[in-house]
Structures are given as C-alpha cells and as structure tokens.
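Appendix B. One record, verbatim.
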Amino acid sequence: MTRPPLRRRLLSAFSTFGLLAGLGLAQFAAPPTADAAVSDPAATVNTLIGSSNSGETFPGADTPFGMVQWSPENTRGNQTRTPQPGGYDYDATRIRGFSLTHLSGTGCAGGAGDVPFLPYAATVTSSPSADRTDATYAAGFSHANETGTAGSYRVGLDSGVNVELSATTRTGAGRFTYPTGKPLSLLVRTSNSEVGSSAAQTTIDTANRAISGSVTSGNFCGYINTVDRRSYYTLYFYAAFDRPFAGTGTWQDGTLSAGSTSSSGGTTYGTDGWPAAGKGSGGYVTFDPAQGQSVGVRVGVSYVSAANARANLDAENPAGTAFDTVKQRAHDAWNTELNRISITGGTTAQQSTFYTALYHSLLHPNVFSDTNGQYVGMDQKTHALSTGQHAQYANFSGWDVYRDQVQLVTLLRPDIGADIAQSLYNQANQNNGVWDRWTHNQGGTHVMTGDPGHAAVASIYAFGGTSFDAAGALASMVHAATTVTAEDRGRDGWNVMVTGERPSLDQYLSIGYVPSDGNAWGGAGETLEDVSADFGISQLAQRLNDTGDGSRFLARAQNWRNVFNPATGYIQQRDSAGAWQSFDPASDDGFAEGSAAQYTWMVPFNVKGLFTAMGGAATAAGRLDRFFHNPDNSWALSGSDGTHSDVSNEPSIGTPWLYDFAGQPYKTQQTVRQAVNTLWSAGPGGIPGQDDLGAMSSWYVFAAAGIYPLAPGRAELLLASPLFSQVVVHRGNGATLTLNATGAGTNAPYVQSLRVNGTTSTRPWLPESLVTDGGTVDLTLSGTANTSWGTAAADAPPSFDTGPTSADLALNRPATADSSCNTDEGPAKAVNGSVSGGSGDKWCSLGGTKWWRVDLGGPTPVRTVTVRHAGAGGESTAWNTRDYDIQASDDGTAWTTLVQARGNTANVTTHAVNATARYLKLNVLTPEQGGGGAARIYEFEVYG
C-alpha cells in the first residue's frame, strides 16, 4: 500500500548519525546555562520551532487549550491551498491573511483556518476572491521581522504594516500599525477557511464599529474521500474596532461592491474536495489616516451563535482592554501551565526546545464551550456542560494522542484530563454511541485507525483524571466494542477514513483478529490498535471494580497473538480463513503509516509475551539493535527504510523504551537520548514529523524528562534518563514528582544508580504510586554505560497477560458429555484441535441437560478458556451458544463456577480465569440465540 497524501512525512536529515566516542550521541552547539531552574519558561518558547516542512505547526497567538489561535495563512500563489497543514510554512514568505483558528501538525490539507483578517496598505479595487494567485491581496515578509512566543505573535509585512496578535481563551486581540502615507484598509475573508466553506456571511456595522458573521466549514481530508467532503461546524465571530470606519465594501465571488455592508457565499468544496478558485465572500473597511496609523481590534468567537460570540468577547476581552494587557495575560497564562514542569540545567537551546515542546503539547484539545457553558454536540444540537464539567473540549486526533499526549496533559492537569474524558463520552452519546477516532469541532471525521478513545479515556483515569462519568463511559465503550454496527461491516471511507468505529468488528469477535479481506485500513495494524483499546477498557473496568469486563477485555487484548506469525516472527496479515498473506517486513501492506517491522513492537501492555513469542528477551534485544541501526552500526532512527525505526511517527515512538523489558535498559537510555539530541532542535525544522496536535511534542517532553507511559490504561512510567539535572512535575492536584539527575548532560545518558523515595532500586520503571502520590527519584548518570544495572528478569516493567502462553492443555484430553446428536459428533470432537472438518467437527447435544467436560489429567493451573461456537465452524451464527457456565473441579464431583456467560452472540469467546483444577465442565443453558435447539461446540481450549 502506498502511503496516502493524508499525512506526508518529511523525514529528518538526522537519520544516520555515527557513533560519538562509542556513545552514539550528538552534541548541541549552544553553551550551557547556569545550573538554575528556568524562571520564565514562556519567554523561552519559540513558536517558529517545527514550522518548517515536517512539523506543520503554526506560529500564531493562543492560550493553553484556547478556542482561538490567531496565526498567519501563508501562500505560494495558489488561492485554494496552504503551503502546509496548519496554514504556515517557514519557507513560504508571503501571507494572505491571519485567521482565527488553527490545528497543529494535522496532515491532510489542514483544517480550520477560519476567518482570515488581512491589513492591507492599499485601496481595495477588485474582489479578493478573484485574486486566484494571491498576487494582489497578500504581502511578503522577512523572518528578521517576525517573532512568535507563548501568547503573542508579531510580523512586519513588506507592505509596511506591523501586525501584532494575542489572545484569550475565546477571543483574539490585534494591533495593526500602517505605514505613513498609505491607505488603511482591512479585509475580512470570511469564506476562506483553509479547506474551504459551504456558506459564509459578513455584516459590517458602522454605527458600532464592528464586523460580524459566520463561516460553515469542515471537509477535513475531504479531498481523499467523499465521506468527509461535507461541512459539520459553523464558526461565528464578532470583531470590535477601536476607531470608526471611513469606508466599507464587500465582495462575492468576482464581484466587488464598494459601500456595501453585507455579503454571503462560501467557496464550496469544488468537485474534488478542494475549494473552488474564484469563489467566496467577505468584507472590508477603511480607516482615516488623519486619526493615526494604528488600528486595534478585539474578536470573539463561538461555535454556537452570533450572540455567544459577542458575549464571549464581553466576558474575556471587554471594551477598553489594552492590547498589551491581553498580551501580558496570555504570557502569564502560559507561564502558569509551563511552570508545572520546572527544569534545571541544560543549554539555552535545550531549554527552548523543551518548553516549546511542552507549549505544543498544551495547544489541543481546545475549549469548545462558551462562557455560558453552551456548546454544539456531535448531534448538531446545542448542549450545556455536564454536571461538574468545567469545559467541553474538541479536536481529538485519537490515533496520535492516545499514546502520550493525554497522559501528559492529565499528569499536569488532572482536572482538564477529566474534562477531556467527559467531552469524549459526551461526543459518543451525541453520535449514536460511536466513539469517532478523529473529531474536529463537533464533527466526526473517522480519520486513521483503531479505537483510540477507549485507550485515551482509560489512560486519563489512570493518571488521575477521575472526576467524570467513568462508569457511564465504560458502559458506552463496552457496548461499542461488542455491538457490531452496519458501519463496522461497511467500507465507506476506505481506507483512510473508514466510518465504522471498529471496522470488521464482526470478524474480530468471530476469529479474534481483523483479516486482510476485512474493511479496515490494514487488518494486522487494526488488530494491534484494537487490542490496545481492549486493554484500556480492561484497565478502566478493573479500576471501577468491574472484574467481569476487566477479565473479558484483558483476554481480548491478547488477540495480538492471532496476527503474530511464529514462522516469520512478525505481526502480519492473514485472511479470514486463517491463511497468512505474502509478506515483506518493510511493506506497509496491512498497516497505516508504518511497516510490519515497525508495528510488530506495538504491544505495549504485554511486551514480555511479545518477547517470548520472538524467542526470548535476548533475541528481542538483538532485533531491536538491528531495528535502530544500519548494518554499519550507524543510527537508523528516521528516514531509513521499512525494516528500521521511524521515531518521527507514532508507530515507532514507544519502541526505544522496550530495552527496559529486555534486561538492557542502558540501550533505552542511549537510544532515547540519541533521538532527543538529533531529531529535535530549536530551529524551524526542529520537530522530526507532523506534530499531530501535540503527540510528537509530548513524546519529546517525556523523553527529555527521562520517563514514558507504560501502556494505555496504566500509569507506570518507563525510565530512560533526564536530559536536565532536575525535573520537577507540579501536578494540578498538589502532588509533586521530582527527578534529580546527578551528572546529567547531553552526553551523559547512562544510569549508574537509582533511588526511589530514598530506597535503592534496580528497576528501570516507576510504579503508579509515583504518579498518583508524587515522590522523589534520584539518578546518578554518566557517559559510560552500566551494563549490569536493571538486567535481572525481576527488574523488568510489568506485562499484562492471560494467555495463551502455552499449548492447549485440553487438546486430545479425555472428554465426556450428557449425549451426542450423532455418532460422529461426540465429546472428543471438541478437543481435537480442529474446526475444519465441516459441520460434523463438533460436539453436539440435544439432551435435556446439556453438559460437556474434559479431564486435564491432574491439578492444572488454568488462566484462559476459549470456546469456539457454531459460527466458528461455518454454521449459522444464530446457533452460537447464548448462555452457559464454565465450572472447575478437583475430583469431578464438587464444582466451582468460574464463568457465567449470558447473552453471548460471538463465534469465539475467551474467558480469563484463575484456577487450578483437573476437570473443566461446560453447562449449556441456552444453546441457540432463539432459545432451544442443539448445543454446538467446535472447540474447548484451555491455557495455563
């Protein structure tokens, strides 16, 4: 499969760094700073980091999780395209406007970019929509005249206009200073969202010195598939100016109407998902230069109504508020959040890289509710905040952020994490129970793979974001993960944006994996995503004392084994009949944005089981060595081929930490530090891949702190080593986690010793208690690897497994039953290891009391029982066993019930148990979906 234009990855030039004095570490050129904590982290932020090529970040003004991101829209001379998703490319030095909303590093063609404002130092003489090459209504600029930092942005345009922007949560503040002797014009290009619009409306109110209106848009990735070629949100705005208008005008398509005060019309999405050139509408105003060269504007926005946009402005940025006041408040708001991680040491460049990464991590999701608590839901209706919820959040790039960004946000702000979890649950409730994997404002886009909301919510809860309706969310997730919908069975949106929440869920439930001939964007990769979601559900269920769902979904999480081919040692495609497909480990066939070699490592909750399947920890460590290095031992972190890592993209970002499980934690320390040192920098190209709404930046923050989340739904932290001599995490709930790193430095990644709360430890991971309660971690680092620290098997981080980790213990064991339907359907057929013999390859019973049992030969530890019902043998799924119990006994007379299954519809059911028994018994209570009939069991499998 060729990687689609959805998420173009421009790979880092730092892909093959040689070894440095045997350490494999590259140096920064910047001089070291004094050994003191950074006092003003907001001032170290450079919003131009990541704005060139791969990062796709935007440099404009915003506040933490703000609704407004006022930032430039660049142009290369094509009215219907932006140079990069996010609207800005450092290498494109011409600006056609400054729009109010942005998304950071999304891929596709971007999104949002709503309502661009353009201060124009000339007379408006033609329709801006007719300027198809941006030759007239745009201005060049030099980076020497550009500054972007936390909460503010400034650029001097070649036209002579100086643009200054800042923001509050729901408003923008702008100050435009025009050159002397030039006209003072200002365009509001209402219809020109980054990917177009289906409707737009502009009204100029001369009496109140205001411009208001709305734009209706969406179309995220719409050029790829028609299912997203639609509008799903309307943004309302109200812009109040600090001086009267000298003139007005509007335009629609190619027609300019001087003196007009209203216009309407969207750009449309053309015939192929791209805005149609020459279409659109907006308005412009002029100012009297005799009253001065500076124009101030305050802009409020809302996704609910025009009235709410104005109310948001009045509440957060009322008349009389000076621009410099807004700018200072935005700076202070950022310092409040950035100071939640205090760092000491490092170079100036490293400090800037770190705090800019933290800044990017806290841009999304975005506050979506207004100051009165209203927001528009996924059902396109207006809602109020749930009880106890402080804000509704939107813009959730699930496939990206479930791995680390939601954990980082919740680590710092458990209250915001809980609100994000509630927001996701609210969206699902408003979306017919569907947890869309990539939501933009109040629209579902279905983009990417897996079921990431389930992993994200579980992680938020584990990291302390518990003040949401977790029980309701769990019930909703369990329903979505067990109830097959028409969309799950369909191929609408294939392949990038399959509309089903769990594509081919029916097959996943039946055969335990998503097959190559299913509906997903790559069955093998989809299976790995689904098992991570299942593991997340299992962990949330266990924390909520739902042991039944906890065990059931923990067992389902082990379905990764069904796409692990022991013959090749890789995760790979297999079809619905079980046949392995043609295989190349460098190929992305079966995977989204990655290869088999890259995805094979993506079983974060059961690394021990994965390593065992590979042949043991030593074998796995050797494979990791080859994964991260070329044959000449140079690094292969990014930009190599599909057989090597790509730490610039999500499927590979957890892999450097896996040496911790292999008894070689010093290689995790080395590999993580190499990526930190060489793939990231304080320059415009300083983010190695699309930032994906903060996912990649969150990886850097964790990596520079020397810690990383273990797995979805867990709060253990894997250890590398801090880049800084001290990292202090001040959690919003009052807990403090301090990491002291004696000897820390760019080329000193290796842990020599570790103490956790004063107790010496050789474990390369931290328990959940360090997250929930805080604590102190003391590390001693050096430039020489300690190859004996953390090597014992008992030191390895936890893995979560239920089996099967052994052969089927029931295979060909003696079996008895109440009766058989036919002589060739006796009890032995349920333990013969086969479902391929046709409809007779089963145990069948029409007895009055239907039971079957197996003798394991002696007391046997049992951890998992798998039952294959009628559908697994190719018979009607209406004959799948509906209600049954599984019991255990030591002597065959006294029985203990292990499983009570009710309402089953699946072809294959797997049950996690914890027993030691000689006999296992299956009591069939309701044999078919309709009630009576025959019991049909094709296989009864037992694993230790």
